[in-house]
Structure formats: C-alpha cells, structure tokens
C-alpha cells in the first residue's frame, strides 16, 4: 500500500477494487519506454484476478505490452466536487472519488484463437445481462480483424483502491457526501454528453 492518500482513503480489499473494474471497465494503461510515458485507454475484463484486453496493433504502446514488462492500470469510478454547503458541520471544499490502481506485468497473447476468444469474452461481459448481441468465434470478420489486434494479459501484483468518500466526517455528513456523489453523476452526464455530441456532429 502506498503512503498516499491517507490510510482512511485507501481500500486494500481486492474484492472492492474488482467491483470498480467490473462496473467501470474502461482503463487507462500507463507504461514507460525510454523514460517517456505511454498512455492508452481501453476496456479490460477481469479473469481470475488477471486483466485481459486488446488494442489496435498500430498503437505504439504495443511495443511494451509484452514480455512481462511493468504496467500500471487506472480505473475511474464516480467522482465529484463536494461543496461545504452540503455538510452539517463547518468544512472546506474538497473532491471525492472512487479510483483503482492495478500494478503488475503484461504478457502478449500471440495465439490468434486466444485473441478471438478474449474478444468474445469481452463482448459477452459488456453485453450482459440481456446479451442483445453475441459475437461468434466463427464469424468470418473475426479472422480479418484479428490480424490488426494486439491482445494482452496483465498479471496484477497489487490492487489499490483510492476511495475518497468523506470517511473522516460525521455520519450525517458522510451520507450527504454519498448523496451528492450520486446526484452529481446522474445530473451531469446527460448534459455533458449532449454538449460533446453537439460539438462533434
């Protein structure tokens, strides 16, 4: 466990980190090559405490997503500004968040059939629970697509939950902060997505 944030904002129960990964699978992958950071965003699925994913083979990040090279992966859950106005006590402004860091090493999936299996597994997970679409291993498009895909598995050696949830406040204030986190994320997402789409289409 790292020394920051403070211990009361850290969660060392792996199962709690897994819950975040399952709900918010889009990850930020961070590697280093020649003292320069390499950063990619991609969904990952959790399989037997390992993270499995794939990216475009043309992505330069593929150069270090193999050979047991070190990697850090970040998953971000809900987050929001917390105004002192919601508290029953005098407080200062802050920001609450649910974030998970996973560190480990990464191996390339070189077998094309294994890559296709991982793509099917990811689609099955993401289409849950009703599965309106099912990706088939024998879909002929898969044979063409797999040539452009770099598959990989991350062996996680350490999970760190960064759960800043006003844990150091009174119970009433913790509850108010929880409701603010829920409310802000529900209200903001629709307006924000509409704005982004209107500026791009």
From TrEMBL:
A Pfam family matched in the record: FMN_bind_2
Gene3D superfamilies cross-referenced by the UniProt entry: Electron Transport, Fmn-binding Protein, Chain A
Source species, domain of life: Bacteria
InterPro entries: Split_barrel_FMN-bd, TR_PAI2-type
Name the record gives this protein: PaiB family negative transcriptional regulator
UniProt lineage: Bacteria, Pseudomonadati, Bacteroidota, Flavobacteriia, Flavobacteriales
């Amino acid at each position: 466990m790292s020394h920051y944030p403070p211990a009361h904002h850290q969660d060392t129960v792996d199962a709690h980190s897994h819950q975040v990964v399952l709900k918010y699978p889009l990850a930020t992958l961070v590697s280093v090559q020649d003292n320069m950071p390499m950063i990619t965003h991609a969904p990952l699925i959790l399989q037997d405490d390992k993270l499995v994913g794939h990216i475009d083979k043309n992505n330069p990040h593929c150069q270090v997503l193999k050979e047991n090279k070190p990697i850090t992966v970040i998953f971000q859950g809900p987050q929001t500004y917390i105004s002192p106005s919601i508290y029953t006590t005098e407080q200062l402004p802050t920001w609450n968040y649910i974030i998970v860091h996973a560190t480990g090493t990464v191996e390339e999936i070189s077998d094309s059939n294994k890559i296709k299996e991982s793509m099917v597994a990811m689609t099955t997970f993401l289409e849950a629970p009703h599965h309106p679409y099912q990706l088939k291993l024998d879909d002929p498009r898969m044979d063409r697509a797999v040539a452009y895909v770099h598959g990989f598995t991350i062996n996680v050696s350490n999970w760190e939950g960064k759960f800043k949830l006003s844990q150091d406040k009174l119970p009433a204030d913790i509850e108010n902060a929880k409701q603010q986190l829920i409310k802000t994320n529900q209200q903001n997402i629709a307006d924000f997505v509409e704005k982004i789409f209107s500026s791009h289409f």
